Amino acid sequence: MSDRLAVRKTYKLYIAGAFPRSESGRSYPVTDGKGRFLANAAHASRKDARDAVTAARKAFPGWAGRTGYNRAQILYRIAEMLEGRRDQFTAELRHTGASKTHAAAEVDAAIDRWVWYAGWADKITAVAGAANPVAGPYFNFSTPEPTGVVAVIAPDSPLLGLVSVLAPAIVTGNTTVVVASEPAPLAAITLAEVLATSDLPGGVVNILTGHRTELTPWLASHMDVNAIDLTGIPDEHVQDLEEKAAGNLKRVHRPTATGWTADPGTARMTAFLETKTVWHPVGV
Question: Cα(280)–Cα(126) distance, rounded to whole angstroms?
């Protein structure tokens, strides 16, 4: 029997493409399905949330300005890297109490979901946009554009649910601040390690770990956040957060009861798009 002491890992936040510690110096223990210690996760503060929003805002013009085809390439590369870490993600899901078969199936579904959204990057404009009939010598076009900075409160489905709320927000050109699952954040931080070594620009995705009840009100009321996805929020807290989000007329995506294995459709992509209408004279 080995007498070597285990190295207990403390996972950090993911902000602006780097892995800072929480400015508060706090962390909290993450346990497995049987209550056994797994690791420490950073306990993000209001200041960390502000830093993440600043990073997302700084990254927004460059990410929104890329072609849909280029965003598709970047997201597909992330899927390739997720595939390379399949065993690690499976092991982390097993810590939550999932069987080996179920955990492996969820990892595969998450990778497939990421690829599916990557394929939409250069197609969503054609589907969500329109050429509108007008009574005059004009062309009239409606074109979708990204909303801006989106705060995403992830569900407790630690990988498939996370991918299902994150990928549709960034594939259309938004940047994000994600509050990971509070009881099961390890898959989110491992995903951050994948993102950091991919060609996704720093700041497009920022991941915070900690207490939702502490972080979400500040993100909902933050005047530089343009939209918020409340998927991971219990129903009894939704109204209060919607009232906070009304300060700058944020788009709000309410929690839905749809299972994560269901066909996702395009609703999560279009939820965080604005529509720009352009008039142009018809050439003679």
Answer: 19
